[in-house]
């Protein structure tokens, strides 16, 4: 039986690393990057820089979850959502 988790290499701040995520999370992350007109690497670098603990794969899953749970469609979800700060955004 094939594992639902897919390991992919990604460059973060000039360093190559591997991240293991389910295909659905990779697809969601690509969608978020496209909507923000940025790269997957830039989003993952932001998530990585903002995490206080845990592994990068978990941090990405929490970020994607926060993005799609946000009632504004995730536009105001901070890159570090789910990592020691409130997952609710503040609207100015």
From TrEMBL:
This is DNA-binding ribbon-helix-helix protein. The keyword DNA-binding applies. Residues 6-67 form the Ribbon-helix-helix domain. It comes from Ancylobacter amanitiformis. One of its GO terms (molecular function) is DNA binding. Residues 73-92 are annotated as: Disordered. Gene3D superfamilies: protein bp1543. Keywords: DNA-binding.
């Amino acid at each position: 039986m094939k594992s639902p988790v897919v390991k992919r290499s990604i460059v973060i701040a000039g360093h190559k690393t591997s991240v293991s995520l389910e295909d659905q999370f990779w697809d969601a992350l690509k969608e978020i990057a496209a909507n923000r007109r940025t790269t997957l690497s830039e989003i993952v670098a932001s998530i990585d820089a903002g995490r206080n603990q845990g592994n990068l794969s978990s941090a990405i899953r929490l970020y994607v979850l926060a993005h799609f749970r946000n009632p504004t469609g995730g536009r105001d979800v901070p890159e570090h959502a789910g990592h020691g700060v409130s997952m609710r955004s503040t609207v100015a």
